[in-house]
Design a protein that fits this description.
Arc Repressor Mutant, subunit A; alpha+beta; single chain; 5-stranded antiparallel β-sheet; 11 strands; SH3 type barrels; 4 domains
């Protein structure tokens, strides 16, 4: 069994070969020892050893399933100048022996992904732990065995809804560098708008998946919420593109979509202070202890509509100290809420 670093390389080689096998017309996806060595930052000699390990595992898999094969499914084709699979190869449940820390991390990852309804990666990671698939649950460790998957759980409130087919199409567009034709319903429009996107980055922001992409209609880089309510349809186009060199998704998200940012200072009573202090908030800049367990918290805010809902969730445990116009806006909203009459 290869060590963990080699295991990761072998799985990456398998993924790249399968990707080229499915898209042999795309020259940029060719898999050679030179390309692999550069991508995985190891020597050409190490790559050849990794390929031997992959071939060995494929042959072992054939033997386990009773499939005799004259030649290994993984072959180098001189005509295509690339490694390619001659037939379908499934190594999705081959993980190897992980230590306890690594196993714990994988369990948490499974739970984190599972909260997104329809998330395909959650199912694949779940297969790793299935005993009938030869996964990790069957490994003897600490006397836990099948109980091990009950040791971790993950319950974020308000996780975004996704469609598995839409997500898979977007994922392929990202990996293959292919444009997407979408029908997208934004909050600003009363009806869906047809757009052609160049997908640059997919991120989970505040428990909701967002696609950062170049929109040909506005000729700009925009964010698109990946949920069936917004994304009415997604289709992979044959047209390819190259992502701008040095594109920084984090810098893009930090710009707050060109909205000016302002500081908001809150006084949060003791009953609600833990909600601020015990979590990581992207806009939180500083906190200061006050009397009776209260805190003063300073936030840098770009989207005041979203932040208003955050403040109102505290009820009377939160007071806006500055700026004055935002304090007035919160007071007006609170009066509207108090004046609502059940029907």
């Amino acid at each position: 069994m290869p060590n963990l670093n080699q295991l990761e390389r072998v799985r990456e080689i398998h993924r790249l070969v399968r990707r080229f096998t499915e898209n042999p017309q795309n020259e940029e996806l060719r898999v050679t020892c030179d390309r692999l060595a550069e991508k995985l930052e190891v020597t050409d000699r190490q790559i050849r050893r990794d390929i031997d390990v992959l071939k060995q595992r494929i042959e072992e898999k054939d033997t386990e399933q009773g499939h005799g094969a004259e030649e290994c499914a993984l072959q180098y084709e001189p005509a295509r100048r690339s490694y390619i699979y001659k037939r379908d190869v499934d190594l999705s449940v081959w993980v190897g022996r992980l230590d306890d820390d690594e196993l714990g991390s994988l369990l948490v990852a499974q739970q984190a992904l599972a909260v997104f309804s329809g998330m395909p990666l959650a199912k694949h990671i779940g297969n790793i732990f299935e005993e009938d698939a030869g996964g990790l649950v069957g490994n003897k460790r600490s006397g836990l065995r099948e109980e091990i998957t009950s040791l971790f759980s993950f319950y974020p409130d308000g996780a975004g809804k996704i469609d598995q087919d839409q997500f898979a199409t977007i994922f392929r567009g990202l990996l293959l560098g292919q444009q997407l034709a979408v029908s997208y319903q934004s909050k600003a429009n009363s009806a869906p708008v047809e757009r052609v996107l160049r997908p640059y980055h997919l991120c989970c922001f505040k428990h909701q998946w967002r696609l950062i992409a170049h929109d040909s209609k506005s000729d700009s880089i925009r964010d698109f919420v990946v949920t069936p309510r917004r994304l009415k349809s997604v289709k992979l186009l044959a047209r390819t593109f190259k992502r701008p060199p040095g594109f920084d998704a984090h810098a893009h998200l930090s710009r707050h979509k060109d909205q000016p940012t302002r500081e908001v200072t809150l006084r949060v009573a003791r009953a609600g202070a833990h909600h601020v202090l015990e979590r990581n908030w992207s806009g939180l800049r500083s906190t200061r202890d006050l009397a009776e367990g209260a805190i003063e918290a300073v936030f840098e805010v770009g989207d005041f509509g979203e932040f208003k809902r955050f403040v109102l969730a505290f009820g009377s445990d939160c007071e806006v100290l500055a700026p004055a116009d935002f304090r007035t806006e919160i007071q007006a909203e609170a009066r509207k809420m108090a004046g609502l009459v059940p029907t």
